[in-house]
């Protein structure tokens, strides 16, 4: 397993990424992933300092940023280490193994160098995971991915049992690299795979472009979520820090009650 060296009480210990994620959640009492869908990386950096103590993960779409630079993304990575949250690049890879390998490591973004986790469609078959896992071995830090099993949008073609079954099989086969799912229901009985659920909002039921929302409690209880992925509910609120804290508290309370952890 790839490992990360973390200084704890002057002892350097190695922690694989799945375990690190679970430790972060417990230590910070947070199952909140902020989906920082902003187009300015400077603004994301400032926001990450504001909500850093409330979140277990920060999710970005680097290809919507107008001011991306490797220097700035390094700053964000440093903040993620300081506040102890993971960085997820929501790249939604969907191509053949060789192409995703290049998309993951090359180009302007060099995602593998800074993203702890990436999201992956399994549409091309298991070769996509093989390509990414191979590429991740070029980096001396733990890397992992979340397989997109189900989507939150209306009419998603992932609403197909055979497809979802295939995704779960793929996760089991590559469980060193695949640490969980983007999902809308509980897909496995073990706690091995983290279920990350987008489409969470306390005040809205959807947007104008097919997004569908449930509340944090519904996401955990009815949709099987471990991690709540929350974007505009926090980003569009008047006080982002306060709203993030509310989602953290409500989310973790429901998580403890329902998952009995
Ligand atoms: N996302 C979904 N649904 C999925 C997968 N991913 O909404 O099935 C992502 C979107 C966005 C975030 O790309 O970044 O989660 C949700 O944002 P919102 O809370 O503002 O709707």
UniProtKB/TrEMBL annotation:
GO molecular function: orotate phosphoribosyltransferase activity; orotidine-5'-phosphate decarboxylase activity
Name of this protein: Uridine 5'-monophosphate synthase
Keyword hit for Transferase: yes
Keywords per UniProt: Decarboxylase, Glycosyltransferase, Lyase, Multifunctional enzyme, Pyrimidine biosynthesis, Transferase
Phylogenetic lineage: Eukaryota, Metazoa, Spiralia, Gnathifera, Rotifera
Domain Orotidine 5'-phosphate decarboxylase: 31-247
Location of the active site: 90, 92, 95
List of residues binding substrate: 37, 59, 152, 211, 231-232
GO biological process, one term: 'de novo' pyrimidine nucleobase biosynthetic process
Pathway(s) annotated for this protein in UniProt: Pyrimidine metabolism; UMP biosynthesis via de novo pathway; UMP from orotate: step 1/2; Pyrimidine metabolism; UMP biosynthesis via de novo pathway; UMP from orotate: step 2/2
Family classification: In the N-terminal section; belongs to the purine/pyrimidine phosphoribosyltransferase family.
Enzyme Commission code(s) on record: 2.4.2.10, 4.1.1.23
């Amino acid at each position: 397993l790839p490992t990360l060296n973390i200084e704890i009480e002057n002892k350097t210990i190695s922690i694989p990424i799945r375990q690190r994620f679970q430790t972060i959640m417990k230590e910070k009492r947070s199952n909140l992933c902020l989906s920082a869908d902003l187009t300015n990386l400077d603004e994301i950096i400032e926001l990450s300092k504001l909500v850093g103590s409330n979140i277990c993960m920060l999710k970005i779409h680097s290809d919507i940023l107008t001011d991306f630079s490797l220097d700035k993304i390094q700053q964000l990575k440093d903040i993620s280490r300081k506040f102890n949250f993971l960085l997820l690049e929501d790249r939604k890879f969907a191509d053949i193994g060789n192409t995703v390998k290049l998309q993951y490591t090359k180009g302007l973004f060099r995602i593998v160098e800074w993203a702890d986790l990436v999201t992956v469609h399994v549409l091309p078959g298991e070769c996509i995971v093989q390509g990414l896992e191979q590429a991740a071995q070029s980096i001396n830090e733990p890397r992992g991915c979340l397989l997109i099993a189900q989507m939150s949008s209306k009419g998603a073609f992932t609403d197909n049992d055979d497809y979802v079954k295939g995704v779960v099989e793929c996760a089991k086969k590559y469980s060193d690299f695949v640490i969980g799912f983007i999902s809308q229901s509980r897909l496995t009985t073990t706690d091995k795979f983290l279920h990350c659920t987008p489409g969470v909002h306390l005040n809205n039921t959807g947007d104008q472009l097919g997004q569908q929302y449930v509340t944090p409690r519904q996401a955990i209880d009815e949709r099987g979520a471990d991690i709540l992925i929350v974007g505009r509910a926090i980003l569009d609120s008047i006080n982002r820090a306060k709203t993030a804290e509310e989602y953290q508290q409500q989310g973790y309370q429901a998580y403890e009650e329902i998952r009995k952890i």
